[in-house]
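Write out structure tokens for Nicotinate phosphoribosyltransferase.
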Amino acid sequence: MDIATRVYNHKWQIDPIVRSLIDTDFYKLLMCQSVFRNKPDTRVEFSLINRSDKVRLAELIDEGELREQLDHIRSLSLSRGESTWLRGNMFYGKRQMFRPDFMEWFENLRLPPYHLEKINGQYELTFEGSWPEVMLWEIPALAVLMELRGRAVLNRMGKFELQVLYARAMTKLWEKLEHLRRIPDLKIADFGTRRRHSHLWQDWCVQAMMEGLGPRFIGTSNCLIAMRRDIEAIGTNAHELPMVYAALAETDAELAQAPYQVLADWHEEHDGNLRIILPDTYGTSGFLKRAPDWLAGWTGIRIDSGDPASGAETAIRWWQERGEDPTRKLVIFSDGLDVDQIEALSAQFAGRVRVSFGWGTLLTNDFRGLAPDDALAPFSLVCKAVSANGRPTVKLSDNPEKAMGPSAEIERYKRVFGVGEQIRREVVV
């Protein structure tokens, strides 16, 4: 595909940014089914949060164009082929991963309304309603904002300038893949949907990974691309679940148990490689110290904030203390990775644990240094649950730069979860 020419000639009706309700991450659908089963009546609010405030989105992106894309997403519904794929495909070695009652609900879904306004050079974009419906806005909303920002820059470029830009980006990625080929026993997946340069570019990156890495490339988080390219859909769960469960807690004691209640519900639904702990929502060390014994028997852990090597070492010690063999456990690294870090972590933990990588923004949106004024460099944009049944949500993370929530509630959560001094790390993506 000649992406540069497609970009130069594109009309959004031909290339809508989000073209399907399954142009989303697999873990969102798994979590949505869990929420549909366990907390269907919870009311939530999600909000766009631009951590990179120097990128003034409301000055780059036309409001009419943004509304047009968001309205288009609200018109989408599952196609017959998409429904058949979800109902009948094998995911993580199992068929009928998605229950008939959930699929019937999903087949009739249209995403709920949004609220959009401009405030101090940024867009305030929020979504309110029932949790199973609102949560499915997160990934498409991020994809739209990221791609519209890219289009605003690309629209200033001529035909040949675009050709050179994409040639350089393709070369840059291919050189990364050549680097990754040298890593023994590499297992790596595409986790780059939420902050991708564009749908077309993510699809190109996935195809490059398929050819360049062969069986070392184990799949993509993007359901639509997984379906069309006949590869594995990859994903488990995310911070959203403990954030909302915690906000619903009535007492400090219930708050302290909320992250484990999330995983107890998950334990009833999934086994094998879907039993992956994400421990950092309220601090990894405290989470593992208070974790029930049955969690040590889960398949593995995902490291998504803080120093990744330290996080993995903490997990290894925890497994050893609980009588588990770390060499049989899976550690998934997924926070702002690029090839040098992937290589270093592979070497450090080879033979000590099973290692896998979720490669995100710096796979699907690494245009650093390729545009004038570095105008296409990726930036940190998130869309998070900010309240549940009228109560604010909180995320502490292992990196205080990623913390969110009202200051008084953050202090309360730190007390309840025993979070001590934390080391700040720059949030690149």
